[in-house]
Amino acid sequence: MARSDWLLEPGERGNPATRLEKRRADGTAWSEGNHARHLVHGAPYFAELLARIREMRAGDLLLFTDWRGDPDERLDGAGTEIATVLAEAAERGVVVKGLLWRSHLDGFRFSEEENRSLGLRIEASGGECLLDLRVRPGGSHHQKMVVLRHLGRPERDVAYVGGIDLCHNRNDDSAHRGDRQSLPMASAYGPHPPWHDVQLAVSGPAVGDVEAVFRERWEDPAPLSRSPVVRLRALWNGEDTSAGELPPQEADPPPCGTHAVQVLRTYPNRLLWGYPFAPDGERSIARGYLKALRRARALIYLEDQYLWSQRVVACFARALRAQPGLRLIAVVPSVPDQNGRISRPMNLIGRITALEELRRVGGERVAVYGLENHAGTPVYVHAKVCVIDDVWAAVGSDNVNLRSWTHDSELSCTVLDRSRDPEPPDDPGGLGDGARTFARRLRLELMREHLDAPDGTGTELCDPQTAFDRFGQSAAALDDWYAAGCGGPRPAGRLRRYVPPTLPTTRRLLASPLHRALMDPDGRPFRMRRRNTF
């Protein structure tokens, strides 16, 4: 298998200004010799992150970016609040640097005050945390990464990339009883919304690539906000508004595994003060998907918070049209409503039109499911995972929607494993690429959880057709149990067939020429994404 069949080659990223294209003497656009691990759910990720940060010493380097950071979110019990853990690291002499999205006003149910509080706590302990509003209008910094570098101990270096923010709601596990520190969501999710998410832990040379992503943003000379009002308010609140120097970047950690890892991103094109590292933006996440989907032959397994926008799902539809044997499984939130009245109608519009397009092309080869816990409460799917033919796997902060592919800042890692999985079928795609251990094990762990299949069982799920059928059978059994009045034992499994909810005005909005003329399926005016194509 040639790596270049699946990964973006030099120049295909479409952004020659980034240092990611220049980091290696041989010119390769990805790193070899990594070891990637998938951490399913916030609880195991938070526990590992806590242990790794507490091991850090004076002179070590801790870098992080986030969409939201709640200072009181506990990583693993009392005394492990994220602000406390980061402040204690800074007090020990660890170099702590953070970039948080400044966020919209809290009146819009975002995170302005929480991010500011976390930043001030870190600053008071000797670290540095900036609130970054260098985005397009209506956009956000959505990247979620933590990089831990160890002075003189590069074998311990690790980077975490994925969908899990350092904030409330995320600290859940496979039982899906929800984080005890919860933010309000749609009433269907209850007082402690069950939360499904995935983070990637990467060791090896790719840690240097993730660090380079942080450094490009940190070293951007543009003001943290264009708004004079925001800048004055930041000064009044005592916030740090200029980035201090970072220590020089150390050599990449040594190779330690069989995984090729490619770091992909989204950056918008910003007028006036553009990004020096992406003057015309970057769409490498979208381009990575477009390239990988052209090789899809057997099964696309997708877990996504949104799955919106006809423009974005068009590439999945093209793959289904080109390959009559290709199937697509998508796991999404049963109730796609995280921010109440602000986003719900637009959620439905984007979701309905996207699924109509996929089902028009793929028919019964497209299956979409929601999740619930064993108490019958819907599970909010926040994961951003895609596995294609058990070869190519992507885990990141990006959703399958127009915002993530054009407008917000996003970060994703794609993984190709040199190690072939021994279980049959050994080449589900039929292209000679062979099923790869990392991609297959990621898919199987996720599927087993949703089916309530114990670890080490379910090897028949390696077969794409069998896996597709098992999901359908499990969801049908649970749906039938509910339809029959819940008599008798509850069937195993957590899958429910996804049926898009409707609002009285939804169909009218879909049919409105004015809406189609002015708004995209993510609910933004079309003018806000001028030149944001992929």
Q: What is the assembly state of the chains in this entry?
A: single chain
Question: How many DSSP E strands?
Answer: 18
How confident overall, as mean pLDDT? 89
Roughly how much helix do the residues carry, as a percent range? 25-40%
Measured on Cα atoms, how large is the radius of gyration?
A: 22 Å
Quickly give the structural class: alpha+beta
Overall geometry comes to globular
Main sheet makeup = 18 strands, mixed
Q: Low-confidence parts lasting 5 or more residues at pLDDT below 50? A: 105-110
Query: What percent strand?
Result: 15-25%
Give the N-terminus to C-terminus distance in angstroms: 26 Å
Total number of helical segments?
Answer: 13
Fold and architecture overview:
With 534 residues, the chain is α+β, with helices and mostly antiparallel strands. Helices cover 29% and strands 18% of the residues. It is built from 13 helices and 18 strands. It has an 18-stranded mixed β-sheet that branches. Helix 6 (284-293) packs parallel to helix 7 (310-322) and helix 7 (310-322) runs parallel beside helix 8. The longest helix has 20 residues, at 464-483.
Index terms:
13 helices; 18 strands; 534 residues; 29% helix; alpha+beta; single chain
